Amino acid sequence: MNINLKLETSELCYVYSKYKITKFNNKEYILPEGNATKKKISLTEQINDILVDTLNIGKKVFYKETIEQTELLDYFAKYGSFGFMIDLAINKYFVLDNKVAIRDAFYITDKETIDFVNIDEYLKIFLPELNKREINGLIKKCKDIASDTNSEDCLTSIINQYLIYSEHYAEPIDLVLNYVRSLYKNLILTIEHKPLTMKLPFLSANHLTHNLEDLYYNNSFGFTINYLKQAIDIYYGMQMAQDVRLLKVCNYCDKAFIAKNPKAEYDTYNCKNKANVYKSRARSSNIIHTETGIAVKIPSEEFSKELLKGLKKKYK
Ligand SMILES: [Zn+2]
Fold it and tell me: Ligand 1 center to residue 259 CA distance, Å?
């Protein structure tokens, strides 16, 4: 069965020109710089790059490699924040309710089960710069918008502007790193056919909107993406579900990549060359495994010949 499924970005997705890392309550956050400018972003046009870049930061967390602050700041300036505030809330219009039910509460409140948090406390987690009065003002504003909006169609996108696309919206860095790590972990375990050991903070479909007009005019079903994490989760699922899977992990450097050729094993020529050198070295191996399991290095045949030539020259 072939399905014509399309992803499109909501008109109301944004990115800021510059981000900074700041501590609030001893927790590191990433958020837009004070003087940053806000512009619209299409998350679907560059979805391949987004998925691969996200997985490759995840790869660094997974293998405990160093991640420079600039790397995270550049990622955010390119694609914007993930939208965890929306994504982790179970109730779709949480800002209109008194309490927010949080899935994957572990990342927010260190609890394993679904947790219920007062709306003002929940907003404070992602808007640490705002005081109580400002947060209550924001909640009132969102409620006013909801009661003024005739159709529910774009309510999510409109409310998002005041929440995840606000200049005060901040995401805890440990939350970001946990997410990208688990995405990469899922990829590598799936590719290696190993059991998935953890439940992943994946897709909450209740925030997904769809486009029925496309179904009517073009025979294609379209999902409208409202924020970055949603784009990544859905596109990851689509890539992984392909009968010929092109989302792969390089056999040499372990980075994720989307292959043009289904048989590709390496993300770059450089890795392919290095892997070949490695293989041919392994073939003319100069390591011997003894009965006691100790590896003993002896000069390889090529090396011995070179050495002999050198010696001959010297003593001629
Ligand atoms: Zn590679």
Answer: 12
Which residues form the domain of 305? 269-314
Tell me the CA distances in angstroms from 83 to 73, 233, 311, one per residue in order. 16, 12, 67
Selected residue with higher pLDDT from 44 and 286: 44
The 10s digit of each residue's pLDDT in 170-185 is: 999 999 998 999 899 9
275 C-alpha to ligand 1 centroid (Å): 9
Residues 109 and 168 in one domain: yes
One domain, residues 214 and 65: yes
Count of the separate structural domains present in the chain: 2
**Secondary structure of residue 274 in the 3-state scheme:** helix
200 and 81 within one domain = yes
Output the CA 267–ligand 1 centroid distance in Å. Answer: 5
Which amino acid, residue 15? V
pLDDT of residue 292: 56
- Domain identity same for 40 and 168: yes
pLDDT in tens, 207-254: 777 777 777 788 888 888 999 999 999 999 899 988 899 999 999 999
Cβ proximity of 33 and 46 under 8 Å? no
Distance (angstroms) between ligand 1 centre and the Cα of 227 equals 29
- The answer to whether residues 30 and 21 touch, using CB atoms and an 8 Å cutoff, is yes
pLDDT of 47 = 95
Spacing, Cα 29 to ligand 1 middle (Å): 31
Distance from residue 251's CA to the centre of ligand 1 (Å): 7
By percentage, how much of the chain surpasses pLDDT 90? Answer: 54
Residue 260 forms part of a structural domain = no
Q: Which of 91-105, 217-231, 257-271 has the highest mean pLDDT?
A: 257-271
Q: Is residue 29 a part of any domain in this protein?
A: yes
Same domain, 227 and 274: no
Distance CA 298, CA 304 (A): 9
